[in-house]
Amino acid sequence: MKNQFIKTTSLIVLFFTVFISCTSDSESDLSTDTDVDDVVITELHAAYAEFNTDATDIYLSNGGTTVTIETTGLPNHESVYWGEDSDLYLEESEVATTPSIMSSNNNAVTITVDATPNLTGSTVSTQLNTIGVAVSGASIFNDQEGNGALDEAAASLDWTGAHIGPGVYHYHLEPKAFTNDDKNLVGILLDGVFLYGRKCNSTDTYPTDLDTSGGHTSVTQHSDGIEEYHYHIINELYSTTGSYIAFTGPYQGY
């Protein structure tokens, strides 16, 4: 009887030992699985070196899985929206300016994007307000103004396709201050995908294989010979503006 009790007790202990071990292993695997889509990087993409350091602070966040861009929103180029007291003020008599000027308006924005864009997910439509940050440090907006088409506010856009109204100074059109019918970097969008000018670095001409978002995969001047997905300003004139929408969407990197 005593031997039977010892055998039974031993079996119970063994059962619980195995059960606890399996439970522990399962929980460990589950934790690993939840992080499987997070790609950790240890240094910023080379394209971030193009950004205006006087306006932006760019750093890795969330353990290297995301990039945070803090910006004053104040660009390093001339505009009528600086106001007459600024050294960067540019007289633009043909612009129907909005009431605000940059020197008295809070233009600061902070965005956090995936360090490695998720290009296997669903597309997402752009919304009003900031959809990205340009290399100048100012915000990028889509092709809408308020709840209407951009046409209604086109007269208020300065020489580089931007204005204030309402909120921060932002670009709607090709920002000619730093990209004008070329392959220059424009900025980073909220899905973590870089936006370039109308021409492609790999062909030195207008790309012909763009998707509906203006994106394709090829080598850029910042990708160290490796093909990567990126957007271009689409080479199609917008309405009567004589210029090109910076980015309409949808995002492909969510």
Automatic annotation (TrEMBL):
It comes from the Bacteria. Residues 112-203 form the YHYH domain. Residues 1-26 form the signal peptide. InterPro entries: YHYH_dom. PROSITE patterns: PROKAR_LIPOPROTEIN. Keywords: Signal. This is YHYH protein. It comes from Polaribacter sejongensis.
